[in-house]
User: Fold this.
Amino acid sequence: MTYDAVPLIPRAVLFGNPTYATPTVSPDGTRLGYLAPDEGVLNVWVGPVDEPDQATPVTRDRGRGIRVFGFCHDDRTLYYLQDEGGDENWRLHLLDLESGAERCVTPYDNVQVRVLGHNRWHPTTMLLAINRDRPELHDVYRLDLTNGELEKIRDNPGYVGWLADTDLTIQGAASVTEDGGVVFFLADEDGEFHSWLEVPADDANTTSPVGFSRDGTTLYLVSSLGANAARLVSVDLATGKETELAADSAYDVDGVEFDPETRVPQAVIFDKDRKSWTFLDEAYGQAVEQLRSSLGIDGELGINRTERDDRLWMVSVMPSDGPVRFYLYDRSTGGLRFLFAHKPDLGGYALAPMEPFAFTARDGLEIHGYVTFPPDVEREHLPAVLNVHGGPWARDAWGYNAEAQWLANRGYACVQVNFRGSTGYGKAFGNAADKQWGRTMHTDLLDAIEHLGGQGYIDPNRIGIMGGSYGGYAALAGAAFTPDVFRCAVDLCGPSNLLTLLAAVPPYWKPMVAMMYAKVGDPETEKDMLWERSPLSRVEDISIPVLVAQGANDPRVKQAEAEQIVEALKSKGVPHEYLLFPDEGHGLARPENREVYYAAAERFLAEHLGGRAEG
Assistant:
């Protein structure tokens, strides 16, 4: 019987552009900026901070929309980053908020810009990294906001990243070793770089600097050296002495809240089943807890402190069963003003809470995940969709998730697993995934299904698998390696052949290729292993229907990854569908493309698993 316990939520509500996104207060506290649709495309809107309903669009993008923007500290310039068709070659645009004049300061083809630094102490300067001269290396440039002059100030001899202090001086860099480790360099008094910290491959994903104090005497480092889980430590640059500031035995530091003026850490966040805050500054802790009490909402708290006086905080609250809500908090008065929800249309529908669960994998490793059940129905023998996160060096987290709500609303239990290699659970958990694509990373997913099935929640004969990026690979692996477990698979921009994936990495990833080889496999010495772990190698075993979707401009997982598996499915007569989006990259940014994809996926899942679909 088709699930009909609650009203169907339209796809346009779930996957259309947000009504409001990423609100931020200008450094002088006079303006409010946010992203919102203009003629159906996400653009930047700006208005008076006291009258957000008076905001108007200040950008005019008519393509894939704008997603990254910020106010500059000169109090008149707004910047945003934009690529073309999803190619990730970001260009930097500046907009004069007084005159409306706009200019692209990096108008180069096939060139990517990264913002390294901009702050209150240097209000007319931005520090940029640009790979204009060599596509695999980003040199350092200084941008003068007053005249748009761009000056290269440091060539890159082979570093994968730069460390800038609060005076926008390059004080360090990082390089990757042949075995996938990292070496961090710091500058001496003459500006010459010297090796400062050698990080072995086992700690490379869980050790990195996070910033300098304003007085320049201290470097703050998230580090798993000498520990399993990454801690926050301070390093006295004069003596080299390290001091542990915050640590958890099982979970890595996920975020650090800095005092905007001194750049001293005030709080550390550990991403457990839910976010857990540890306060290093008592007054800040009291302010946050008072704010949390005033909100009175069960949700993950976010605080954006972009206003220079630290008087106005932009506050977000994200529940798992409702839209993200944004507030403006005035610390001087204690006033808390609701601004808007990111998708107010969700308010009229019954959403489902995301629930953490844990189990022991077949080799004894503890694995965590989340399950979102269809509302108002018995949790017994439900059809399920295993929705695998991308990365794979990322994780699922508790909070509002459009796909989880979509699947639950259609009648499926949405299962999300932080399989080994997912971030946040310590280096041993992360390193347990080394060269385990298609092996223990995959069996963790199977064990999650068995765990939930053993409790009677899900029907082991009605399970689909889907995901994007690495999750797309996992979906193809499910179809190729364990077709008896799944009824169908949905792959969005997932690699089908690990050899061709590694051979086609973007040029600016090449300095990090040793790290990828250490984590995935070396095509020179482990060619056979990588081919065996590739779904394409087992296409003969695929017997379940597969839906493949791909962006034509994807720089990470090239179109060929989709084309070769689709051609193989076609030649073997395996039921399949293929969606190619000519104006997308690694993922779907245009709402009209998301509608096409989710409509197809919804119909596909309903056909093979029995859930409902929007007409």
